[in-house]
Design goal:
Number of domains: 3
CATH topology of the largest domain: D-amino Acid Aminotransferase, Chain A, domain 1
Catalytic activity: N(6)-biotinyl-L-lysyl-[protein] + hydrogencarbonate + ATP = N(6)-carboxybiotinyl-L-lysyl-[protein] + ADP + phosphate + H(+)
Strand content: 25-35%
Enzyme class: ligase
Radius of gyration: 21 Å
CATH class of the largest domain: Alpha Beta
EC number: 6.3.4.14
CATH architecture of the largest domain: 2-Layer Sandwich
Protein name: Biotin carboxylase
Structural class: alpha+beta
Distance between the termini: 49 Å
CATH superfamily of the largest domain: ATP-grasp fold, B domain
Shape: globular
Number of strands: 22
Number of helices: 15
Function: This protein is a component of the acetyl coenzyme A carboxylase complex; first, biotin carboxylase catalyzes the carboxylation of the carrier protein and then the transcarboxylase transfers the carboxyl group to form malonyl-CoA.
Strand order of the largest sheet: 13-12-9-10-11-14-21-19
Length: 447
């Protein structure tokens, strides 16, 4: 096992990795921007290194500074978390060139399946259905021609990233001309790669994803699936595991996810995202070659520590779990607590948290870097914490989540908590009738 690792991230995921590493006796180094000097990860890590000013491009995406921090502190491996450098194969390759282990898949696997374009090609070769779409588009003229062939509306997506960044829904030629450059710039800003692909945009579908873990030698297991259909602007708000899909359809999707990961000898934690239409047809969207924000719900129903598994696999200790070892129990729900105002189109609400009290009690978990007096910087994602519950049934989990939300108090910035309380009471949500347009179609008057 590693003696020391560097965490190339911030916020709750950096804290999440620190906690498991500490339990394993592994020393931690966190990098931070000037805006995060007083963050909990910096305060709790064994060492910390400032890698630049607040802008992500100058700090958390600054590869030379991050590698220098690892070499300077003697870190043997880098955990990228999610976002930032987590799905950048060039960064993973540079780590390897400098004798540093990248805690994640190989650069080759990332290029093959992690890019949206590469993933589509492998899915086609594996007989896994995909939404009509393109490879990487060279420019707006090629995009216009592709959109004419596919048919509007279409979705522009960053080939190198996820999390809803670099995604634009386009309904006309005029919108496409304006949006293409914007999507490229957003992709470059968040992922360091302006490459854009296009897919047919489906108006009504469920977002279901398969959690996998692989050893890099062809052994891949799944740890169930998650439903992540409740979103705003293509970014997830509420996730749950398992989904409420019929058992036979769930198994088909799980098998497809494992098959795709095996195709590239996948190593570490990964997620294969699918969409499911109203008729029960499923289509592969993309693979996220990293740990997900919502990994917690899968941990809750499996009893596994995904970060521990990541570290063990990256350290060469292998994956000793077989599919038959995975027993999923109960139901788990996660609400992402964002510093945003849902009443004002989810406008970010950076600023000082005057006071915070998170819920507790049986079956309640909180992953958060927020504390009383913490100043939320305006430079990054608005996520300040995740509230996760677990219970025997979905109905019981919903009741527990509502209780936990009502018990949680954050004074200062607006948050998404009041919206989640309303969703827990929504009759469509209670019966599992959710699609990605849920907020628009089922929460009218609540926003």
């Amino acid at each position: 096992m590693f003696k020391k690792i560097l965490i190339a991230n911030r916020g709750e995921i950096a804290l999440r990795v620190i906690r498991t590493a500490r339990e394993m006796g592994v020393k931690t180094v966190v990098v931070y921007s000037q805006a995060d000097e007083q963050s909990l990860p910096v305060l709790l890590a064994d060492e910390s290194v400032c890698v630049g000013p607040p802008a992500s491009s100058a700090s958390y995406l600054n590869i030379p500074n991050i590698l220098s921090a690892a070499l300077m502190t003697g870190a043997e491996a880098i955990h990228p978390g999610y976002g930032f450098m987590a799905e950048n194969p060039d960064f993973a390759e540079m780590c390897r060139e400098h004798g540093i282990t990248f805690i994640g898949p190989t650069p080759e696997s990332m290029r093959a399946l992690g890019s949206k374009a590469g993933g589509r090609e492998i899915a086609a070769n594996s007989n896994v259905p995909t939404v009509p779409g393109t490879g990487v588009l060279e420019g707006v003229d090629e995009a216009l021609l592709a959109a004419k062939q596919i048919g509007y509306p279409v979705l522009l997506k960053a080939s190198a990233g996820g999390g809803g960044r670099g995604q634009k829904v386009v309904r006309t030629q005029e919108e496409l001309r304006a949006a293409f450059g914007q999507a490229q710039e957003e992709a470059r800003l968040y992922f360091g790669d302006p490459a854009i692909i296009m897919e047919k945009f489906l108006e009504e579908f469920r977002h279901v994803e398969v959690q996998v873990m692989g050893d890099g030698q062809g052994h891949v297991i799944h740890i169930g699936e998650r439903d992540c259909s409740i979103q705003r602007r293509n970014q997830k708000l509420i996730e749950e595991a398992p989904s409420t899909l019929p058992a036979s359809l769930r198994q088909e999707i799980l098998d497809a996810g494992v098959r795709l990961a095996q195709h590239v000898n996948y190593a570490g934690a990964g997620t294969l995202e699918f969409i499911v239409d109203r008729d029960g047809n499923y289509y592969f969207m993309e693979m996220n070659t990293r740990i997900q924000v919502e990994h917690c719900v899968s941990e809750q129903i499996s009893g596994l520590d995904f970060v521990r598994l990541q570290l063990q696999i990256a350290a060469g200790e292998g994956l000793h779990l077989q599919q038959s070892d995975i027993v999923l129990r109960g139901h788990s729900i996660e609400c992402r607590i964002n510093a945003e105002d849902p009443d004002k189109d989810f406008r970010p609400a950076a600023g000082k948290i005057d006071d915070v009290h998170f819920a507790g009690g049986p079956g309640v978990r909180v992953d958060s870097h927020a504390y009383s007096g913490y100043i939320i910087p305006p430079h990054y994602d608005s996520l300040i914490g995740k509230l996760i519950v677990h219970h025997d049934t979905r109905e019981q989990a919903i009741a527990r989540m509502k209780r936990a939300l009502e018990e949680t108090v954050i004074q200062g910035p607006k948050t998404t908590i009041p919206l989640y309380v309303k969703i827990m009471d929504n009759p469509f949500y209670k019966r599992g009738a959710v699609q990605t347009n849920f907020l628009k179609t089922r929460m009218e008057g609540a926003l």
